[in-house]
Structure formats: structure tokens, C-alpha cells
Specification:
- The structure is a single chain.
- The protein is an all-alpha fold and 41 residues long.
- It has 1 helix and no strands.
Amino acid sequence: MATAIKAIPTLKGKEAREFLRHAEEAERNYKGGRSVFSANQ
């Protein structure tokens, strides 16, 4: 069963920055390289 798009939460502000920080850290720990989320590639 599909989830309605309006039911998917959107992160903004501090929550979005915190999510990206954790995602980048997890990615670095996983592959030990550059992050696909970073603008500084």
C-alpha cells in the first residue's frame, strides 16, 4: 500500500540540518569517503 504524499513529513530548519549532519556522518562511517549530500564536492 502506498503512502499519500501529504502524509510524508518534511524537515525544515534545525531538524533538516540535524538530519543531514547525521546522514553525512553515517555515510562517512560506511564508505569512508566524500558525502553525496555535501555541496563541497
